[in-house]
Amino acid sequence: MEYEEFITHVQSLAQSNSREEAKRATRATLETIKERIAGDEAQELAAKLPQELGEYLRGREGDSGKSFNLQEFIARASSKENVEPTIAAIHVRAVFAVLQNAINPEVFATFHAHLSHDYEELFVTSQIRKSQT
What we know:
Layout: H1 3-13, H2 19-36, H3 39-47, H4 51-54, H5 70-81, H6 85-102, H7 105-113, H8 128-131
């Protein structure tokens, strides 16, 4: 999936009014993922995304990541994006759904496995691929 297509899907799923908002949401979410998971895992995820998106995940190689719950994840993304947490939660869910469709299932499963159970509400079955066929 190319960068512009990724942003278009985030904008659509988040029901965002602008591409800029979708870009900010994507950046905030990916940067928060970078803080949450081990740096080497973030690097692996980055390698499967368009370079513009992968850059948000790079820079922490060798770091073990920080363990924080979903509420803290949303708070961090909210702060980065400068929106209310309820809006950030919608944006994060949209980015996770697009991410799930943008990378191969094995890499996504590895990423998913490193998040605690409270993150499950972010993992929705997305119909992006199916609707394009």
